[in-house]
Amino acid sequence: MLSLSPKDLPAADLSAGQLERGQSPWSDAWHRLRKNRLAVFGGCVLVVLVLFCFFGPLFFNLSYDVQGLGLGGLPPFSKVVKIYDAATKSMLEVSDVSHLAYDPIFLNNPEAKSRLALLADGKTITIGGRLYRPSLYLLGADSPHGRDLFARILFGGRISLMVGLVASAVALVIGVTYGAVAGYLGGKIDRVMMRIVDIIYALPFTIFVIMLMVFLKDPMEKFDTWLAQYSIIGDTRGVSQILLLFAAIGAVEWLTMARIVRGQILSIKKMEFIEAARALGYGPGRIIFRHMVPNILGPIIVYTTLTIPAVMLLESFLSFIGLGVSDPMSSWGTLIKDGAEKMEEFPWLLIFPGGIFSLTLFSLNFLGDGLRDALDVRSSKD
Amino acid sequence: MLRFIARRIFETVPVLFIIVTGTFFMIRFVPGGPFTAEKAVPPEVQRNLDAYYHLDDPLWKQYVDYLWDLCPKKFHPTALADGPDLKAAFGIDLRPSFRYANRTVNEIIAEKLPVSLELGLLSLGIALALGLTAGVITAVKHNTWVDYTASALAMTGICVPTFVVGPLLVLFFAIKLGWFNASGWYSPRDCVLPSLTLGFVYAAYIARLTRGGMLEVLNQDYIRTARAKGASELRVIFRHALRGGLLPVVSFLGPATAGILTGSFVIEMIFQIPGLGREFITSAFSRDYNLILGTVLLYAVFVIMMNLAVDVLQVWLNPKLRFE
User: Fold this and answer.
1) Is the omega angle on the peptide bond into residue B43 within 30 degrees of 0, that is, cis?
2) What's the pLDDT at A176?
């Protein structure tokens, strides 16, 4: 039979006390989100991807721009050994016996051929009595440069994810400020501000971004050389291109955010706590950013998560038509572009970057949808 | 209603003016011009080129002249039957191209626009047919395996970009199976892969929007009323629910139609289609001032007209809006 000893009682009381503390709307939303399997899956994939892209290269000692002669279009899971060839006084990358048969350098160099002896276990190669450990080209190598595709996908992911995050942040800051100010001030100012948004909406977006990218490319490259003169950063290649991507994409993606924020601000503008804040004599800046914006964070978070995939898609679109970062740097868009050109011979050059990119977009969309359901935001999207 | 349309058309004039002015000065103020990329020409030749294209005039004069040439001076829409020549029909002169010798922007547009329109309309047709069907079916069969499969497919359509789908379709259907040409635009068969690639993405968005809109509408009282008075299920869906359920789709269609036209940039590049999108990108790279301005304007007019059409359609579908 159940019998409560006096010793158990305080513990029971304590847990009852914890239950009575209640749940904040945020922890409610968190619980709802955790029940959504697709959203959890998306979140986990994203965390893994971000960790891999930003920290992977540090652990695996990968480089995205080291070229391998004769390694162009290497298939996935190839093992490559790098040996110093005394005859030609150069590094020779050897993948496997079958590959060697087609290697022009190797074929033209019978001396090197005679000094190579391959062990059949596939893990190590001995040449002239010395043991070499092959490095793994997990996803093969690009063509014609023979650069490690796995490394290029990781480094490209850095750029793509960074553009996605930073450009969305730019859109977030501009959109929230603009929408909140318009909604709070109301009246004529609101009408003029929103009319401007309507006009920019009517512009053909993509065309606008393309023109911005094409025409600011040269001035920005001058900025690069200027930066190289004065800055402490050693490598300034491509800094301007990335900045330009941030600016161009951020400049067009803030419009919807401004509209959403304005609508939300209008809906809470007449509430008592805002009136109370005004009665306390707070200025408009403080009321908007300390009292109003925190109360409409839900829709803002949801819309930001859905902006990131849109931004990444726009970035890869620009890269695809040749306006993204330039070689030897890569983004997922440029990798897809290169892969599409070589897909007849080496389909994996298209499939791997395309697959990773799509997986990222899947995860972001699942997470965004999950957040929308969890935070119970009504949206016009569906 | 007519007043509303007239006001909106009138409002586009300042918007177009802002677009022309902004584009005109933006492309002029950055370094580089249409002739700088080539090897240096003798100064006399350069002078003649500048005189021919009026580049030796002061910038403000070039701008005013361009605006004047842009103004419609006559109205003969019947001339459009011979081909989309804006000069014959409305007296709009978009000036000669800088990079194509002896060709005017009017001629280039008249030649390339029909190709882009054909591709765009085919894709839009595919997107609407696939998207609406899938959206209605998934909403009616809510939470069944049909719903899950179609929704997963729609998510795939949204997340796999056209420039991955396009090359993969080429790889499989053109190179491996040999059913279609990998690129080009010569026979009706060449339309299949490009318009499917472009249409599929938008079909996915339309399916999701239709499903959302239909689900919301199907729970409303007037649907219960329709069922209660004995309307057949088909009639309830198509006559009563679809009209309300289409609202989110319609507001999406404005930007989407524009997107289908601009999205065709990539499609035209992948499939080597001689359309206006490819022309726009090359003109931006080669600083062909007049061709850039012409195409930008054309796209802007198109986007604005689409948005207007969508607004009108929305008022027609949603009686609540008529009183505003």
Assistant:
1) no
2) 92
- Closest to A244 measured CA to CA, from A277, A260, A220: A220
Closest CA to A269 of A375, A378, A185: A185
3-state class (DSSP) for residue B1: coil
Could B30 and A219 be called an inter-chain contact, meaning their C-beta atoms sit closer than 8 Å? yes
Least confident segment among A311-325, B85-99, B101-115? B85-99
Which of B15, B27, B170 lies at the smallest CB-CB distance from A199? Answer: B15
The amino acid present at B73, given as its one-letter code, is K
- Using CA coordinates, name the residue in chain B closest to A357: B160
Any chain A CB within 8 A of the CB of B15?
A: yes
A315 class by beta-carbon count within 10 Å (0-12 exposed, 13-18 middle, 19+ buried): buried
- Does B27 reach chain A within 8 Å, measured CB to CB? yes
Judging contacts by C-beta atoms under 8 Å, the chain A residues touching residue B212 are 381-382
- Cβ atoms within 10 Å, residue B167: 28
> How many Å apart are CA A15 and CA A58, to the nearest integer?
46
B208 and A CB contact within 8 Å: yes
Amino acid at A208: F
Interface check B37 vs A, CB under 8 A: no
- Flag if B168 and A354 touch (Cβ within 8 Å): yes
Mean of the pLDDT values across residues B28-50? Answer: 73
d(CA B54, CA B289): 12
Q: Do B161 and A358 touch (CB under 8 A)?
A: yes
Gap between the Cα atoms of A12 and A273, Å rounded:
38
Count the Cβ atoms, other than its own, within 10 Å of residue A187: 8
Helices (H) and strands (E) in chain B, counts: 14, 0
Q: Which of residues 140-169 of B touch A (CB under 8 A)?
A: 155-156, 158-161, 163-164, 166-168
**Among all residues of chain A, which has the CA nearest to that of B260?**
A206
DSSP B130-188: HHHHHHHHHHHTTTSHHHHHHHHHHHHHHHS-HHHHHHHHIIIIIIIS-SS-SS--SSG
The alpha carbon of residue B101 is apart from the nearest alpha carbon of chain A, in Å, by: 23
Handedness of CA B77, B83, B84, B89 (dihedral sign): negative
DSSP A260-329: HHHHHHHHHHTSHHHHHHHHTT--HHHIIIIIIGGGGHHHHHHHHHHHHHHHHHHHHHHHHTT-S--TTS
CA A287 to chain centre: 34
Q: Which amino acid is at B187?
A: S
From the list A204, A320, A381, the residue facing B303 with the nearest CB is: A204
pLDDT digits (tens, 9 = 90+) for B23-32: 888 778 766 6
CB contact under 8 A, B163 and A317: yes
Of B95, B99, B271, the closest CA to residue B196 belongs to B271
- Whether A358 sits inside 8 A of B164 (CB atoms) is yes
What mean pLDDT is predicted for residues A267-274?
Answer: 85
Q: Please give the Cα distance from B166 to B169 (Å, whole number).
A: 5
Query: A317-331 as b/e, with b when 16 or more CB fall inside 10 Å?
Result: bbbbbebbbeebbbb
d(CA A289, CA A176) in angstroms, rounded, equals 10
Phi, psi of A379 (to 5 degrees): -135, 155
Closest residue in B to A361 (Cα) is: B159
A39-78 pLDDT, tens digit each: 888 889 999 998 888 887 777 766 776 666 666 667 777 6
What is the rounded distance in angstroms from the CA atom of residue B194 to the CA atom of residue B166? 7
Q: Which amino acid appears at position A158 of this protein?
A: R
Rounded Cα gap, residues A56 and A52, in angstroms: 4
